[in-house]
Design goal:
There is one protein chain. By secondary structure, the chain is mainly alpha-helical. Among the domains are: 57 residues, Arc Repressor Mutant, subunit A, CATH 1.10.10; 48 residues, Orthogonal Bundle (Arc Repressor Mutant, subunit A). It is 31% helix and 1% strand. It contains 12 helices and 2 strands, in the order ββαααααααααααα. The chain has a two-stranded antiparallel ribbon with strand order 1-2. A hairpin with a 5-residue loop joins β1 and β2. The protein binds a DNA duplex through α3.
Length: 357
DNA sequence: TACGTAACGGTTGAG
DNA sequence: TCCTCAACCGTTACG
């Protein structure tokens, strides 16, 4: 994979189409917002489109997490062995049963809930492929398949209350659909704490104290999604710094950011996401490539390995902010937007090194 | 000017 | 192994 990854947006920032911003940047956005910096200023400071800033802040306010959602993958399977078993039972007890009737029974018997009950078509397929030939002649199925029962389809929407949480295999959540109110500080969704800004802050703190913190590593780690997935599944360590695992340390490491690291609010003003060394710093320099070559951020063996470039440092290198557009700094210091003043600082009792004031 | 959001082109990963 | 598809992404443009 070539290093030619990355594009430059209108603000001069570098991004990779289709890929999420590094967590460090995301965190930075939230931190700045909580410091009262207006979204438009954050956008300019970090050179991230305002739409993105808006989206990230909105998501954070809604979920408490700064992390991107899980990308790719499929819906969690609903036709689990248990479901199939029940369908088989229904079919055996009543060979003439309709798929939609089976569906209703699955719900009635609490085998499934409305979020994971198989669609009529799925049940039909199961009957045809897995059960039809086991219990009853397939001829039973076809004719009876109310092939389309649109009426029921709406029930089969996947949209779990919480899109990211659907106790999907991927997510591994224990509480699908759990939605945490914004105010609740950290973790929302299912990704337990690991994904919360607070946790990340904690991470940062950890990193700052870590021997390897500041190490110039730059290899990036595994995919963010992987990280997320791991964490979403429980993430025991998320709550305590000792639990710091790769997951914690490698938040956005999908991007080889040389100067990334979780930000330190203090550097906000002069902050520029991009390291001095190169304009594309956010994602690693030209040489670094936005994404680690070789496809896929293969996991690094050691979570805390050298790959992590999270140093107490800031996303922004102490570089003057080169604004293609203009320099706009905090004209209106306190944006009313921010309404969760302490969320970032209260978790883990880890104060934000807000030196920016 | 600031901001929310739809559209767009892109990536990802389970099936 | 390759393809499909639906999830997500960030940028852009519009109102």
């Amino acid at each position: 994979m070539e290093q030619t990854y990355g594009e430059v947006n209108q603000l001069g920032g570098v991004f990779v189409n289709g890929r999420p911003l590094p967590n460090a940047i995301r965190l930075r956005i939230v931190e700045l917002a909580q410091l009262g910096i207006r979204p438009c200023d954050i956008s300019r400071q970090l050179r991230v489109s305002h739409g993105c800033v808006s989206k990230i802040l909105a998501r954070y306010n809604e979920t408490g997490s700064i992390l991107p959602g899980a990308i790719g993958g499929s819906k969690p399977r609903v036709t689990t062995p248990n479901v199939v078993k029940h369908i088989r039972e229904y079919k055996q007890s009543d060979p003439g049963i309709f798929a939609w009737e089976i569906r209703d029974r699955l719900l009635a018997d609490n085998v499934c809930d409305k979020y994971n009950v198989p669609s009529v078509s799925s049940i039909s397929r199961i009957l045809r492929n897995k059960i039809g030939n086991l219990s009853q002649p397939s001829q039973y199925d076809s004719p009876k398949q109310p092939a389309s029962q649109p009426t029921y389809n709406h029930l089969y929407q996947y949209p779990y209350p919480n899109p990211i949480s659907p106790g999907s295999t991927k997510v591994g959540s224990h509480h699908p659909g759990v939605h945490m109110p914004t105010g609740h500080v950290s973790i929302a969704r299912q990704w337990p704490s690991a994904h919360s800004v607070n946790n990340i802050l904690g991470i940062r703190t950890f990193m700052e104290q870590s021997p390897i913190a500041g190490t110039e590593g730059s290899v990036y780690s595994p995919k963010m999604e992987d990280w997320a997935s791991v964490n979403r599944s429980g993430f025991p360590g998320s709550q305590n710094m000792n639990g710091l695992e790769k997951s914690v340390v490698e938040p956005d490491m999908k991007y080889p950011q040389s100067a990334s690291g979780l930000s330190t609010v203090g550097s906000f003003v002069p902050g520029c996401v991009y390291p001095t060394t190169n304009q594309y710093g956010v994602y690693g320099g030209p040489g670094a490539g936005y994404v680690t070559p070789g496809h896929h951020w293969q996991t690094q063996g050691n979570p805390l390995g050298p790959s992590v470039t999270v140093h107490g440092g800031d996303i922004a290198a102490p570089v003057t902010f080169k604004h293609p557009v203009r320099e706009v700094v905090n004209r209106k210091p306190n944006s009313p937007i921010i309404k969760i003043p302490e969320t970032l600082s209260n978790i883990h009792g880890l104060p934000i090194p807000a030196s920016s004031s």
